[in-house]
Design brief:
The chain contains ten helices and no strands.
Length: about 240
């Protein structure tokens, strides 16, 4: 597994497909914190939403870093489609983790906040960024070439599901009237609600940990379904 990870990571670096999303991410951070001071949790909430979309972009480029012929050769060497997918997901998660850390530390380093962030602000900010990164990876993977044949449908599908996930937050009250439906939809709204607590918050409520946990559980379920479907398609 380690050799497969190393190969996929080096191959991705050589493809230079990471340059556009990474550049846009860095530009956003610089522009977003140009004017100071900024509120802490509101700023983290906004940057986590931006990272949500950026990670969708990263996911597609990572899963498509190999052309079809190269991918077949890699699969023949790997002899395990599940391991192949897990290696790609791992690279996505590592990038999401690194960008989440950058999103949290950059405004602190440049003193962009109106008040000194407390450990609870930093923890909530990290959980918001990384949970939404994880969710974006899980959702976007289902529109890669493993699941969608038409490349145009890949990008339209990713943009649609990410925007839909964000739009759910604005119509949540209507969705709640349909019993059980809210549990089936991407829980981006949970992160937005928690990050709207205000900088005056003195402690992180226990419920917040469960809600962040549900975002990770939801993403894990989507990834598991993806791996199950792609593995079964191979075996048919």
């Amino acid at each position: 597994m380690s050799s497969l990870l190393r190969y996929q990571f080096i191959n991705y670096l050589r493809a230079y497909r990471y340059v556009p999303p990474f550049s846009i991410f860095i530009i956003f951070l610089i522009v977003n914190y140009t004017f100071t001071p900024n509120p802490i949790l509101d700023s983290y909430s906004f940057s986590s939403i931006v990272l949500f979309f950026i990670m969708g972009w990263f996911t597609i480029t990572i899963f498509h870093s190999e052309d079809e012929g190269q991918k077949i050769i890699t699969l023949l060497h790997t002899k395990n489609r599940k391991k192949y997918s897990l290696a790609l997901f791992t690279i996505c998660l590592l990038i999401g983790l690194c960008l989440s850390c950058v999103s949290i530390t950059y405004p602190i380093v440049i003193n962009a906040f109106g008040a000194q962030p407390k450990p609870l602000h930093i923890l909530m900010g990290f959980l918001s960024h990384f949970s939404l990164s994880f969710l974006a990876i899980a959702l976007s993977a289902n529109f890669t070439r493993e699941m969608v044949k038409n490349k145009q449908n890949t990008w339209w599908g990713v943009l649609s599901i990410l925007f839909l996930s964000l739009a759910i937050a604005t119509v949540k009250s209507s969705i709640l009237q349909i019993k059980g439906l809210i549990w089936l939809l991407p829980p981006v709204y949970l992160s937005l609600e928690m990050m709207a607590s205000g900088d005056e918050i003195l402690s992180i409520p226990g419920l917040f940990y469960w809600q962040f946990g549900w975002i990770f559980m939801y993403g894990t379920l989507i990834i598991s379904i993806f791996i199950l479907i792609t593995t079964r398609k191979r075996n048919l």
